[in-house]
Write a structure and sequence with these properties.
6 helices, five-stranded parallel sheet, alpha/beta, globular, binds flavin mononucleotide, Rossmann fold
Length: about 180
């Protein structure tokens, strides 16, 4: 049994990427894994100000914000899933703000190595290279942290709420969840 943390990026409740996250979670739970969520797009995480006081005041970040909920979930996760809509070729700002704060673990010399991770993303995906920046950013994150990439699912033609239902994105996301071993 693995501890899986799904970090979601959408501010839109029940939107396309939320549904991907739920489908993945369903598949993973079927296989007996424990799944928790941190809904970065719906939380209040203050932007890092580079004070470098991480972990010196008993918390990962000195700000009293929702990163206090994410930090312990991140620390105990075996698998981290980044599940996000594409916003201007990248993660939505609130999700990026939360991900920036993983920096606290580097400053605080807290070892996060050895985790596995996946990227689930959706967008309209008009252009061939629409997801390239997000995909590269994801690669830099897991490589920098010494994690292992288990795969990515990039779903196009998902623009309006519920569009994801008309794609194969949910079936594939559930299958990815089932494949966690
Ligand atoms: C601010 C904003 C920026 C967006 N930028 C892109 C983009 O760069 N490329 C793209 O294909 N879709 C883009 N989209 C479309 C969203 O990725 C798409 O609507 C997605 O399905 C939203 O997922 P959600 O329902 O989980 O919020 C953008 C949407 C918003 C609101």
């Amino acid at each position: 049994m693995k501890e899986i943390l799904i970090i979601t990026g959408s501010p839109r409740k029940g939107g396309n990427s939320d549904r991907m996250a739920w489908a993945f979670a369903e598949g993973a739970r079927e296989k007996g894994h424990a799944v928790s969520f941190f809904e970065a797009g719906k939380k209040e995480v203050l932007a890092c100000i580079g004070c470098n006081t991480c972990f010196t005041k008993g918390q990962a970040c000195s700000f009293d914000d929702d990163f206090r909920e994410m930090a312990p979930l991140l620390e105990k996760a075996d698998v981290v899933v980044f599940c996000t809509p594409l916003y201007y070729y990248s993660f939505p700002g609130k999700m990026k703000t939360a991900l920036d704060k993983i920096y606290a673990f580097l400053v605080g010399k807290r070892d996060l190595r050895g985790k596995e991770c996946l990227l689930l993303a959706c967008g309209y995906g008009h252009r061939e290279n629409e997801f390239d920046a997000l995909s590269l950013l994801y690669d830099l994150i897991w490589q920098g942290l010494g994690w292992k990439d288990l795969g990515r699912l990039l779903v196009r033609k998902a623009l309006r709420l519920g569009d994801i239902e008309k794609t194969d994105g949910l079936v594939k996301a559930k299958e990815m969840g089932r494949r966690i071993s």
